[in-house]
Design goal:
It contains 22 helices and 16 strands. The chain has helices at about 40, 45-55, 70-80, 105-110, 110-120, 150-155, 165-175, 195-210, 210-220, 235-245, 290-310, 315-320, 325-340, 350-360, 370-375, 375-395, 400-410, 430-440, 445-450, 460, 465-480, 485-490; strands at about 30-35, 60-65, 85-90, 90-100, 100-105, 125-130, 140, 140-145, 180-185, 220, 225-230, 255, 260-265, 280-285, 415, 420. The mean pLDDT is about 95. The chain binds D-mannonic acid (CS2).
């Protein structure tokens, strides 16, 4: 199937495709968003679009990319920065054009200086980011000074390649120009994402200039946020759905997602913010209970289904949810092993929350691939599973589902599903492949070598025989009986 660029013809859109009604010409780049992938298009930029529709303000968004080519950004500009959002579920589909983006900047097209200067502009009041877990370059709660990209950026701070290096360069320029305070808002699936982002930025700055670090302390806030919307990577099938929804027009910047959307933001902004609450966003004093609930329940069960589902021959989360055994065990993972570890956010019924997630997983229109969620396991497991394991060990609770998830991951990274090879995506993939090559034939040594990865498995867990035993057992269950049987055996 080919999808060639075509300029959107707004007059020819089907009547049910809504277009922005607010004054887009008045928008100024007052938010700069780094990392304009599928998630940001469907979530962060959608919330701003709805806010603008409600208040008609001038809070436009500049979107920034540090990787790949500027092709899609060029196409977005040709369409006056409009693009299509299609929300789809078994109950029906809804398409509309979003209009909050007013500018694009790409490192490969515009050069790093333009990006740095952009972050220093006076009218810019918020820098937001969706750069995935690994984009923060943090290990064990600190800036990862072993990370080669951080080392390179510290050596050439005027030409950074990482988001953290770019933000610090932008803040340094902002300080030099006297352009005032700003907020840096992380929107990635990490616990205390604002705190972690603040640590990375401040530690990077302190390595260069203590006065800059002190200025940041005083002038920059780092609110935490909880973001939630399932937005699978585009496939030909979703591109076709976009075309069909637009009455035959192609939009290469379009995106397809589920109807559900949630955003909880810590209300801690140094220089103002859009009135996001007008678009249903929750602004709260403490995001942590929401973050932990979502990370452990949603993302934790996603990763469980990703490894054990993929190895069990299931291509999508909806395929997993359609299998009564996977469905029941994912529910138990959430209700029996994750919910007891949580502080309940005000007004939330946790069991009803878990049920609502299973309903979302059953959306057969979404085609959210298990292989996609399986990516970056070394970056995801600590917050999704291992903190809960710590809780159970301290409280004598059962964590057999969490352990099976870990055993599933250890099998998954061998890149061999009954003889079928696949790509393992992970920033530590070379290290993982080395462990497979060195110890793959000796299962005990293999599991021990993985448990020795100290940026993934906390030493306090690895020091415990009961934990090690549970992981060895889980690894063997999946290796010997296959993932589907190992999941089914959890019921016994
Ligand atoms: C998923 C998330 O790929 C993954 O790791 O668990 O992207 C998930 O779909 C979102 O966090 C939902 O809000």
């Amino acid at each position: 199937m080919t999808f060639d660029f075509q300029k959107l013809d707004l007059a020819a859109l089907p009547d049910n495709v809504a277009v922005p009604t607010y004054d887009r010409a008045a928008l100024k780049p007052r938010i700069a968003h780094i990392g304009f992938g599928a998630f940001a298009r469907a979530h962060v930029a959608m919330h701003l679009h709805e806010t603008l529709a409600a208040d008609g303000s001038d809070w436009g968004m500049r979107v920034i990319e540090l990787f790949g080519t500027a092709d899609l950004f060029d196409k977005l500009a040709e369409n006056n920065h409009l693009y299509t959002l299609v929300e789809t579920a078994d109950e029906g589909t809804n398409a509309r054009l979003l209009g909050a983006v007013c500018e694009t900047q790409h490192i490969a097209r515009d050069g790093i200086n333009a990006l740095i200067e952009g972050l220093a502009e006076e009218q810019l009041k918020v820098i937001s980011l969706t750069v995935t877990e690994k984009g923060y370059c943090v290990a064990n709660g600190k800036l990862d000074l072993e990370n080669p990209m951080i080392q390179q950026d510290l050596a050439t701070p005027h030409a950074p390649k990482t988001a953290i290096g770019l933000i610090v360069a932008g803040l340094a320029k902002r300080r030099a120009l006297g352009n005032g305070p700003i907020t840096v808002m992380s929107c990635d699936n990490l616990p205390h994402n604002g705190v972690l982002c603040g640590i990375a930025v401040r530690e990077f700055a302190a390595k260069q200039d203590a006065e800059l670090a002190a200025w940041i302390e005083e002038n920059v806030s780092f609110p935490s946020t909880m973001v939630d919307r399932i937005v699978p990577a585009l496939t030909d099938e979703s591109r076709s759905l976009i075309r069909e929804s637009l009455g035959g027009q192609v939009d290469l910047n379009g995106i397809v997602c589920e109807p559900f959307c949630q955003w909880v933001i810590e209300d801690n902004f140094k220089a103002g913010r859009p009135q996001w609450e007008l678009a249903g966003t929750q602004l709260v004093a403490d995001v942590e209970p929401f973050e932990e609930m979502k990370l452990r329940t949603l993302n934790g069960s996603h990763s469980f289904l990703a490894y054990l589902g993929f190895l069990g021959g299931k291509e999508t989360i909806a395929d997993c949810a359609a299998d009564p055994v996977y469905y029941a065990e994912a529910r138990k993972l959430m209700v029996d092993e994750q919910l007891p570890t949580l502080d309940v956010p005000e007004g939330v019924d946790l069991v009803a929350y878990a049920e609502s997630l299973l309903k979302r997983y059953s959306n057969s229109k979404l085609k959210h691939q298990t292989w996609q969620i399986a990516a970056d396991g070394t970056q995801k497991m600590p917050q999704r599973w291992l903190n809960s394991v710590k809780f159970h060990i301290a409280n004598g609770g059962d964590y057999s589902h969490l352990a099976l998830g870990i055993g599933g991951w250890m099998n998954y990274i061998r890149a061999n599903r009954n003889g079928e090879r696949y790509e393992v995506v992970d920033p530590m993939k070379d290290k993982l492949a080395e462990i497979v090559a060195q110890h793959g034939d000796n299962q005990t040594a293999y599991v021990d070598a993985l448990l020795a990865l100290d940026s993934v498995f906390p030493s306090e867990l690895v020091a415990r025989d009961d934990f090690k035993k549970a992981v060895h057992k889980a690894y063997h269950a999946v290796a010997d009986k296959g993932a589907a049987q190992a999941v089914a055996d959890l019921a016994n």
